[in-house]
Design brief:
The chain is an alpha+beta fold. It contains eight helices and five strands. It has two domains: 81 residues, Ubiquitin-like (UB roll); 104 residues, DNA polymerase, domain 1, CATH 1.10.150.120. It has a five-stranded mixed beta sheet, sandwiched between helices. Helix 4 crosses helix 7. The chain is elongated and about 60 Å long. The termini are far apart. The N terminus is likely disordered. The structure holds FE2/S2 (inorganic) cluster (2 copies). One FE2/S2 (inorganic) cluster binds next to loops.
């Protein structure tokens, strides 16, 4: 048996650990006392480990009892029945879950619901005014900006935020002159593609999506349908 495992005149491993823990006790006690505030918050959890969270979604106050680890996406879909926001990857890679929080686009799969109190959340369900579609929604329909539609709620929410960002003079990494970001009327296809690069479309409906954003920006996009007809007639001749 190695010496450091024996008792007697030498310090045993068990004895050494005991002394070390006793010495460390003071250091451990300080942060424990400092954590009283967070302990008080934990005390508000019910027996299932849930806490009460108040969210403002599409203009309505919602009160949920959820575990602190619940994402905003799951809170919307599983607890509020707002299934328009889609779960594509659940890892911040596809953009299907994009919603607006205080006007900014956010991947709701990467946002904890408990952190969204006192913020205004808007989902795809909150964009239309009654039977009147949001201009971006109408533009997606006019320009065939979708096929299966799975990515579409995220694409539309991202596009709404994109247009607002342009109105506020935000530049992108492809903006040539950072002192003069593009206006809505001159927003190029390259700018739109870059600014929507966080939203993937597995059906590859990108031409229609870009045209929809151009229309919503007040431009006259090329007709996707006419383009296809021209291409097909060209191929036949
Ligand atoms: S589901 Fe959130 S980014 Fe894919
Ligand atoms: S329309 Fe199918 S994934 Fe975009």
């Amino acid at each position: 048996m190695p010496d450091n495992e024996k008792g007697g005149g030498k310090t045993s491993r068990r004895g050494f650990l005991g002394q070390a823990l006793t010495a460390a006790g003071t250091a451990i006690a300080a942060p424990t006392l400092l954590n009283q505030a967070s302990m008080a918050k934990e005390a508000t959890q019910n027996s299932q480990g849930e806490i009460t969270v108040k969210l403002t979604v599409n203009g309505e106050q919602q009160t949920l009892n959820i575990e602190p680890r619940v994402t905003l996406l799951d809170a919307l879909r599983e607890h509020l029945g707002l299934v328009g926001s889609k779960k594509g990857c659940d890892h911040g890679q596809c953009g299907a879950c994009t919603v607006l929080i205080d006007g900014e686009r956010v991947y709701s799969c990467l946002a904890l619901a408990v952190m969204q109190e006192d913020k205004k959340i808007v989902t795809i369900e909150g964009l239309a005014k009654g039977d009147t579609l949001h201009p971006v929604q109408a533009a997606f329909i006019d320009n065939d900006g979708f096929q299966c539609g799975y990515c579409t709620p995220g694409q539309i929410c991202a596009s709404v935020a994109l247009l607002d960002e342009v109105k506020r003079g935000c530049a992108s990494v492809v903006t040539a002159d950072l002192t003069r970001p593009p206006q809505l009327a001159e927003l190029s296809e390259k700018e739109i593609k870059e600014r929507l690069s966080g939203n993937l479309c597995r059906c590859s409906a990108y031409n229609g999506i870009v045209a929809a954003v151009q229309q919503a920006a007040g431009q006259t996009p090329p007709s996707a349908v006419a383009d296809v007809m021209v291409r097909e007639s060209g191929e036949r001749t």
